[in-house]
Amino acid sequence: MHGGDEVVAAPGGPPQQLDWKFSQVFGERTAGEEVQEVDIISAIEFDKTGDHLATGDRGGRVVLFERTDTKDHGVSRRDLERMDYPISRHPEFRYKTEFQSHEPEFDYLKSLEIEEKINKIRWCQTANGVLSLLSTNDKTIKFWKVQEKKVKKISDMNLDPSKAVGNGSVASSSSPKPCLANGSSFDGSYDNLSNDFSPPPGGLPSLRLPVVVTSQETNLLARCRRVYGHAHDYHINSISNNSDGETFISADDLRINLWNLEISSQSFNIVDVKPANMEDLTEVITSAEFHPTHCNMLAYSSSKGSIRLIDLRQSALCDSHAKLFEEPEAPGSRSFFTEIIASITDIKFSKDGRYILSRDYMTLKLWDINMDSGPVATFQVHEYLRPKLCDLYENDSIFDKFECCLSGDGLRVATGSYSNLFRVFGCAPGSTESATLEASKNPMRRQVQTPTRPSRSLSSITRVVRRGSETPGVDANGNSFDFTTKLLHLAWHPTENLIACAAANSLYMYYA
Hints:
By secondary structure, the chain is mainly beta.
């Protein structure tokens, strides 16, 4: 591990608990500042190297950050080694650029407004220093390339702009620019020419054609290379790159499509769960992801709490799954909320592809793809909210879609909760690590006491939710919780213990 404080595990034992520290915040709100809806972050993603981070927001913008601590800024390694003070080497990022990825649209055929909100961002392979990424809203996926371009300037003009006006007057800014045959107009020095300009006595000594020269200045340029549209009747909830570097999938409620990055005009439908009669619909697709190393395998989750692993080599339309992962319902535990809270909102493969992490409303579950009898570990995220399920249903919070993530070494998992809290659990054999952090400059300010050992069986849900027996809005540790401040989106750095998470319009980073 390269981050801040190195954690040394006891021989043969689980790794020690990490000590999380605040690293950075971008877009921090001042006290009482109102958050604009369009500024709320809706997607976070590190690239494979961890040197770049992308966020998308509800206003359709994508903001890129780049890592700065790996650059020595001109100081040689030998000089760094001679310094007698420890150097903080935890990942640090800086703002790089931003661009407008999606605009609000209107589907005239269906009389439907299409939001510009970015649902997912996925990085593609980087080549020749060009950053590539996919971004999607509800209907349209776009392939972006971001690269540095050297600024080109026109030099060697015949006229000095300061002496360009013959009679001393300055040309009006409203005067028309001379136009070329193709409709484009001159820029630069020609803007200052007056219509009544007369050449100097004796004429111009020589006619020099303007020359375009490349300066040392660079600009970051984002270009939309391809638009993959008109392939989904329902809202896109997932996109995922294939390890072959050539294809990707997009998933909506009822279908998963396979695309080639080079071809935007067509896609192949590989999963279709739409019944002949929509009244027979019992579950929908909630999330989908390619296996990190096997290009023929992908997994998708459903609103019934199951995960299906499919193999593209079996058939063109993957109606049958290779494996089904689901946890049998505990006898006598069924209630009105059982199916709602069982719905999986996010799945992620571990880096080696051996495990799948899933998030439902109340828990995180870790599945071994070689064992479909049940999860190998279950982590209670906010068990103290179970008596509040009725209130959560009434204010629609029970339908919130929380994301989850795994550390690069596969030893820990993380997910968000309410009151801008997020949870980190150790998932190594024998680990009892469990931490609750708040997305603020003091992440350890709020500590919720929870059972240290991860429980494999979920406690039953009481059929009747009694009101008034507990103080409303107070968790098991006496802290108040706020359903309006929810931490839905977070990402773990691929090689270091660094978590980036979104609290409304603010991006917080923590390292250990």
